[in-house]
Amino acid sequence: MAKVIMTCGRICSGKSTYAQKLKDQLGAVILSIDELMLDIFGSDTGGRHDEYVRRTEQYLYKKSAEIVSAGTDVILDWGFWTRQGRDFAREFYRSRGIANEIHFITVDDEEWQRRVDKRNAEVAAGRSDAYFIDEGLARKFANIFEAPDTDEVDLYV
Description:
Layout: E1 3-8, H1 15-26, E2 29-31, H2 33-41, H3 49-69, E3 74-76, H4 83-94, E4 99-104, H5 109-124, H6 135-144, E5 155-156
């Protein structure tokens, strides 16, 4: 039976790398808000960024249910940063009879900073189209992120 795996973790914690490994292991489909947003809008969404994220997320929920119904596992590669967001996702899938799991990817602060520095260097050199993480963006997501409780997590990575 196909399922949905939600990758949970703060920005630049390794969610996308982990999703790629799972994709290869499971033959799954990855649905990524960042990938879709960057492909469609680039990095210049301005004041509408949060609205575009919300609308993209709604679309990807519907698409993920469609893919699972066709028999393929789906990996949702976005942060699931809040308890409210994780609760919504679980209920969305439960109400449709779709198995789902939350995989929490965590790294210590030193490793996190190393990854941010590496990503930013790759973006600055034009080797990555990921979002550049400046102090403002790091602070924004630090204020948003709520680490999941143990009862929410199916697998710690």
